[in-house]
Specification:
The structure is a homodimer. By secondary structure, chain A is mostly helical. Chain A has eight helices and no strands. In chain A, helix 1 packs parallel to helix 8. Chain A starts with a helix and ends with a helix. Chains A, B: This is VIT1/CCC1 transporter family protein.
Chain lengths: 228, 228
């Protein structure tokens, strides 16, 4: 029970990281790029909001359907493994033995493992799913929750770089504030993200800031070049 | 050799799918949204190109650094497992036994497996990495190749919905063409993507088209509402 809770909370954090990482970066860079080409903040806000809604739907809904596809795939493979265990048990035993042959266990021991595992069909199939096919059972509620978490995190992340353009009419002036608050937000975000994933936090934070800065600078230069 | 080639080509295809999926959807929806708010295709093209460069850098560079982080994480864990196998071999043996206890093998057999596996330290550590920690050895060249593939696929995908705006000045008229070619492109893309991942292709294609259409419609409605 404790273990499952741990997994579920770390998956939620992973989803927040996925959504917020892109949400902070892409709308920030888009707004910066447009600031280099148009002077009115109104267009930047319109484009930015359109991007945020498009990005959050693409990521959230895309993630939801990918999760559903994973679950369908898992269930189809599970059904097939149960059938194979009934129909060609010797072949399935060979597959179990092969897994252990790869780790250098002797033929005698491989055979014993296969024979003993075959006594409990559920555990046998469970083993094949995990170690032959590398598939983990998907949590049926994950897909929906994951989609919402990613989508909302993208929106929250995207609002931060866009907010100066809402309050400041001159888009170039708004850009300065947007750079300042977004690079700070990216640093804080990168710091905690790295801490959570066990990476050196300051180095991780710098990496996240650099990606955002490069994306924004490239978008700014390209948009200005197109408009000339 | 054959197996590795198979893995590598399927990873490339996965990267193309990741990049192109977002590349077709988000710039399409952003352009559609802006068309509902401004009449000039010039701004749509500028915003769209800024989005494509920002998105491709965020996804490509983000993927590259994530791959590097995975490799660092793997190597750090690998070092720790080698140390633990030297320092606390009995504890590590207990961990091997626990893996097999979970699959219902008898205590005697668990002990035999642990003893035999302990004879070859490389394979023992390899086992712990894969089955206790669930970590696969990352390919050192993957991160760079993956970043490039995702980034380029995003650009290729993004150019498709944007191309009508380059040739047609009236953005509302360009939107019709953009919808037509992008929804066709999403259908073709979704069809092959589903075929490659073993899903029903027509159903998969429809899902991809629906996500794109919802994202574009939402962006269009929101951008129009903001501009009023």
């Amino acid at each position: 029970m404790h273990h499952e809770q741990h997994v579920s909370s770390s998956e939620t954090i992973r989803d927040i990281v996925i959504g917020m990482s892109d949400g902070l970066t892409v709308p920030f860079a888009l707004a910066a790029g447009l600031s280099g080409a148009v002077n009115a903040s109104g267009i930047v806000v319109t484009a930015g909001m359109a991007e945020i809604v498009a990005g959050s739907i693409a990521m959230g809904l895309g993630g939801f359907l990918a999760g559903k596809t994973d679950a369908d795939h898992y269930n189809a493979e599970l059904k097939r493994e149960y059938e194979e265990v009934e129909r060609v048990p010797d072949q399935e035993k060979e597959e179990v033995k092969q897994v252990f042959a790869d780790f250098g266990l002797s033929g005698t021991l491989q055979q014993q493992i296969a024979d003993e595992m075959a006594k409990d069909k559920d555990k046998w199939v469970d083993f094949m799913m995990k170690y032959e096919l590398g598939l983990e059972q998907p949590n049926p509620n994950r897909a929906k929750k994951s989609a919402l978490t990613i989508g909302i995190s993208y929106i929250v992340g995207g609002i931060i770089p866009l907010s100066p353009y809402i309050f400041i009419d001159n888009s170039v002036q708004a850009l300065y504030y947007s750079c300042a608050i977004t690079l700070i937000a990216l640093f804080i975000f990168g710091y905690f993200k790295s801490k959570l994933t066990g990476q050196p936090p300051v180095m991780g934070a710098i990496k996240v800031v650099v990606i955002g800065a490069i994306a924004a600078a490239a978008a700014f230069i390209l948009a200005r070049a197109i408009n000339k």
